[in-house]
Structures are given as structure tokens and as C-alpha cells.
Amino acid sequence: MKIKYIFSIVTTLVFCSIPAYSQDIPIEFLSMDLESNQHTQNKIILSNEIDGVISEHATITSDVTKQVEVKTGYKLIYLFIKGYGQLSSGGKTYNIVPETIMLPNNVKDISFTPIKNDTLHYLKIAVLQTELDKEDIKTFPEENTNNIYFKKFTDCKSYTEPIKSPQTTSRTILPNKYIPRVAMGTVKTIGPDKVGAHEHAMLEQLFLGLSNNHTIVYADEAQVNFPEYSLLHIPRGSSHSVSVKADNEMYYVWMDFFVDKDGEEWLKTHNTKDD
């Protein structure tokens, strides 16, 4: 009896010491280095995290010219995050600088290459188009779907939001009405500062850490260090926030993938302002 009693106490103590379950924050760090004999590198990032979304980190040197290939049934988004280059299409040339977004849309003759002796790093996001998406996109403005969308992040319109401090600069780098159920933006500030806790069950969300980002991301009981050139997935429906310590920088891309069209009402919390 005494042995059973002791065993019962030990078992209770062990189970009490186990923390309550909380969902982790999946994160992956981008490899920003190439071997000396490498000219290209491709890797799927956060594979199978969000249904219908494929995230790929690609790296090319100036020995490589990349042709943009259409992926049947998907819409593509390119986020150029490091390096300089040139993009060509239809006799036009666009200068690629760090932190530029490009959507090929329905344009097929697009190619790009780094400038001489440089290396380009970019994320290619492929978003599966459902039958409802294919119908919805027919209602979008033609200029949004038939032309290249090419913008530096800093040229995009800024907005404010109740969960962010007045010192935070937020920009919408991809408004909705370009790709069904998708929107993207940036958040930038200097610590100490934070993005307040909030929830959104109507969308899946990825965060991409940009240059000099050194923050902490929280989701329910979980937290993770979020450095530059990393990609993480906010668990859907979690109460999540971001903090940055004194003198550190917060700078990241948020990517919203809405479950359905109605979920885009969330974007009305963004108060657009003129710069």
C-alpha cells in the first residue's frame, strides 16, 4: 500500500509538471549562401503548411536568366528580398531592387537576371485557384490581371491599424482584387514597440522577416524568435502578436490567404492614408 501511495504521488507530480499543450509556431530559416560552384538554388519552404499555397525560396547568380513559367491552376507572386537585377517583358525593362514585388498575372514573356556579379534571392508564392476563384477574378479590373504588377515595397500605399503604434509604418504591397483571397503588406518600426494581440479565424497567414528584422512572435502560449530572412506560419485562429526590443528593428511581410471571399472584410480594419 505504501509503495502504491508513493507511486501515485510521483505520477501526479510528473503530470502536473507537463505544461498545457499549445500549438507551435512553424518557422524556417532561408539559406542565403551559395557554394562557390553553385549558380542556382531552389527550396520549398514550410511545405504543406497551408492548403493550396506553395512557398519556394530561389537564389540565382548573374550567370542565370530566369524565365517566368506559368503554373497551371495557380497564381504566382514573386518577392525579391535581396540583390539587384533586371526584369524584361514586351520590350520593357524593370529594375529589381531589394524588397520588390512582382505578379506576372496573364503576361507570359517575362525573364529576369541579377546584375553582373550579384545574386538575387526571392520567394515565389504559388496560390491554387479554386473554381470559385476563377469566377471571382472575372470581376476584377482588367488592368489588375492582364498587366505585370511590379512595385517597390516603399512605393506602396501606407495604412494605419488600431493594433499598431503611431510610430509603425505599414504598407499594402498587394491589395486584394489582384489575386482572389490574397493580400500582402509590410510592417516596420523601431523598438521598443509591438503589434498588439489579435485573432483572425477567417485567414491563414505567413510572415517573412526582411533585412534587419529582429523580433519575437507570440501565438497563444507559444513564442519564437523571428530573425531576418525567415518564414513562419501563424497558427490559424490563434491570439498572436509581435514585439521588438529597444533599438532593434521590426520589418516583415504579412501574407493573408483568406478561407473565402467574405473573409476579406478583415481588410477594412486597415485605414488607408496618403503619404
Keywords:
Jelly Rolls, mainly beta, disordered N terminus, 10% helix, six-stranded antiparallel sheet, eight-stranded antiparallel sheet, 275 residues
Q: How would you explain this protein's 3D organization?
A:
The chain is mainly beta and 275 residues long. It has one domain (27-272): Jelly Rolls. 10% of the residues lie in helices and 46% in strands. The chain has 3 helices and 22 strands. The protein has helices at 2-17, 131-136, 142-146; strands at residues 27-29, 40-45, 53-61, 66-67, 74-82, 85-89, 92-96, 100-103, 110-114, 119-128, 149-152, 158-160, 169-174, 182-190, 193-198, 203-209, 214-219, 222-227, 230-234, 240-244, 249-258, 271-272. An 8-stranded antiparallel sheet has the order 1-19-16-21-14-13-12-22, with no helix packed on it. It has a 6-stranded antiparallel sheet with strand order 2-3-10-5-8-11, with no helix packed on it. Strands 4-9-6-7 form a 4-stranded antiparallel sheet, with no helix packed on it. Strand 12 and strand 13 (169-174) form a beta hairpin. The radius of gyration is 21 Å and the shape is globular. The relative contact order is 0.17. The model is unreliable at 1-21 (pLDDT under 50).
Given the C-alpha coordinates, what overall shape results?
globular
Q: How big a fraction of the residues is strand?
A: over 45%
CATH architecture: Sandwich
The count of DSSP E runs of length 2 or more, i.e. the number of strands, is: 22
CATH-defined topology: Jelly Rolls
Quaternary state of the chains: single chain
User: Helix proportion of residues, in percent?
Assistant: under 10%
User: Over all CA atoms, what is the radius of gyration?
Assistant: 21 Å
Order of helices and strands: HEEEEEEEEEEHHEEEEEEEEEEEE
Q: Which CATH class is shown?
A: Mainly Beta
Number of H- or I-type helical stretches: 3
Q: Which residues form runs of ≥5 with pLDDT under 50?
A: 1-21
Distance between the termini: 76 Å
Report the CATH superfamily.
Answer: Jelly Rolls
Query: Could you give a short account of the major beta sheet?
Result: 8 strands, antiparallel
